[in-house]
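For concreteness, we quote verbatim a single protein encoded this way:
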Amino acid sequence: MTNKDRLKILFIPAWYPSKQNSVAGIFIKEHAKAVSLFNEVVVLYSEGIDHLIKNFYKIENNIEDGIRTLCLRYRKSPIPKTTYFIYLCSMFKSFRKLIHEGWKPQFGRYAALISLAVNIPLNLWLIPRWGISGAAFASSIAYIFATLVVIGSFSKIS
């Protein structure tokens, strides 16, 4: 397989093996290793809050078992209930770092954009009517659209 034929795949797992927990998400790491045999893989994961860092966040760039990993740690916000926004901002900046380096995943961004474009309006419409069931239904419909985009993309290249 030539480099041109290799897909660029970004894993953003909720769990991934780390220094604190070496078995968390081990199945994700094994899956990423298998995918990396024929594709270019990057794993972007968060180790969570680190009280020792001085800035809002820190990104460690490593190669683990032949896979590039970006490990993200962030600081707890001094404002209650806003730490999640620091996490989101640091994930976004990590992703932007990859984009600026010229690394762009091929299919995931289209699927995510379609999912977002479907999910937000459906949530705004269904949550007031059906509550949590409306949110679940909206997410399910958005996942179906994202899956159709990925299937359509793969059918074009195969």
Observations:
- Residues 132-157 form the longest helix (26 residues).
- Helices lie at 26-35, 83-100, 108-130, 132-157.
- The chain has two domains: 8-100, 108-157.
- The first strand starts at residue 8 and ends at 11.
